Amino acid sequence: MTLRRTLMACMAALALPLAACGDQTDTAKTKGAAGERVLNLYTARHYDGDLQVYAAFEKATGIKVNRIEGNPDQLIARMQAEGAASPADVFVTADAGALWRAQDAGLLQPISSETLNAAIPANLREPQGHFFGTSRRARVVAYDSTKVRPEEVDTYEELASPRFRGKLCVRSSDSVYNLSLVGALLEAWGPEKTKAWVEGVVANMARPPEGGDRDQIRAVGAGVCEVAITNSYYFIRMDRSTDPADVALTDKVKLGFPSLNGQGAHVNVSGGGVARNAPHRAEAIAFLEFLASPAAQVLNSEQNNEFPAAVGVQAPAGVREFEGFTAHPMNVSVYGRRQAEAQSLMSAAGWR
Questions:
Q1: What's the rounded mean pLDDT across residues 63-74?
Q2: Do 262 and 172 form a contact (C-beta atoms < 8 A)?
Q3: Which terminus of the chain is less hemmed in, N or C, by CB atoms within 10 Å?
Q4: Quick one: 177 and 94 in the same domain?
């Protein structure tokens, strides 16, 4: 049985303590051979390109990466159950809201790193050093360029306007990407305006929420809707695809970067933090510092189609063409703090 299946089976078996999850192989992997430097990585990222980044880290440092995978909530529950005995050194995931949940559960420790503070802009890291964004993704708009003008989707307000009644596609309200977006709107606009926006989005839905972001983009191409909310890297991945159908789709469907209060598009991060009980703290910090290095930033962008987070690092060709947008300067740690309020507004409006 693979580690992922083992973990999911343990999560489902409520009569068994989660700390008992995993087999002997799993336990052995977190310890390493005598004298071997290791890093136990709990990751909710599911991108094949990450494996190349980890291999580059191992080659550069001699530190072996032991990878334990799951979705953010599974990994958070596992770390809670493991308690002080947890082998986790670093928790990595694909949304600042999920990073905040780990911090809020007391599972991350603050660190001070001159390297990280110099490389990662202040708004892309938690102020006390509990987590750091290591790549950026914008939550923006895919639109049918034969029906929609770019200026019709250059603000987030417009997505909830009567212009797009019955013409908007979006995934479900329990998507952390949507929760973080609405959390950012709450921070920028306050509850009254955000409530009206959420209600407008629900009124504008062309269909009940379903599927992931690429499904929303394909729905625009198929004429189901005229606009869709999506993360930038999903669109860029399709634009750079070897599948002719995906490439043809992006000839018609274009990517727009709405502005929030005139300050730029909503940006989220993938990133990580050092686990509270990390048995290999120095290796954990070294790992995060490596993720912020120019070489790792470019490799991640090339493989995963995200934008670099580090200061002065330019995305590689194919991603660079979409990089020239203005990003909102809001600190990403805000999104998690606003999640519960965002979920309440979305549920009340009927955003399923």
A1: 97
A2: no
A3: N
A4: no
Structural domain boundaries enclosing 59: 3-8+34-135+268-314
Contact residues for 14 (Cβ-Cβ < 8 A; gap 6+) = none
Contacts of 242 (CB under 8 A, 6+ apart): none
Tens digits of residue pLDDT in 248-257: 999 999 999 9
Residue 71 has pLDDT above 80, yes or no: yes
Dihedral angle over CA of 267, 268, 272, 273, nearest 10: 80
DSSP 8-state class, residue 91: E
- Looking at the structure, tell me whether residues 147 and 238 fall in a common domain: yes
- State both tokens at 226: 């005229």
Q: What is the pTM of this model?
A: 0.88
Cα–Cα dist 294/314, whole Å: 9
Is residue 40 within a helix (H) or strand (E), and if so which, with residue range? strand 38-43
pLDDT of 30 reads 59
Please count the other Cβ atoms lying within 10 Å of the Cβ belonging to residue 310.
Answer: 22
Q: Is 211 left (phi over 0), alpha (psi -120 to 50) or beta?
A: left
For residue 317 the two structure tokens come to 């060709």
Kindly state the tokens that stand for 75.
């990994």
CB atoms within 10 A of CB 232: 27
How far, in Å, CA of 25 to CA of 39, rounded? 16
pLDDT category at 34 given cuts 50, 70, 90 is: low
CATH code of the domain covering residue 113? 3.40.190.10
> Which residues lie below 8 Å from residue 175, measured CB to CB, with a gap of 6+?
none
In this prediction, what percent of the chain has a pLDDT beyond 70? 90
Residue 271 has pLDDT above 70, yes or no: yes
Residue whose tokens read 């995963």: 304
Specify if 326 maps to a domain: no
Same domain, yes or no: 238 and 341: yes
Clarify whether residues 157 and 213 are in a common domain. Answer: yes
Mean pLDDT across 74-81: 98
Counted domains in the chain: 2
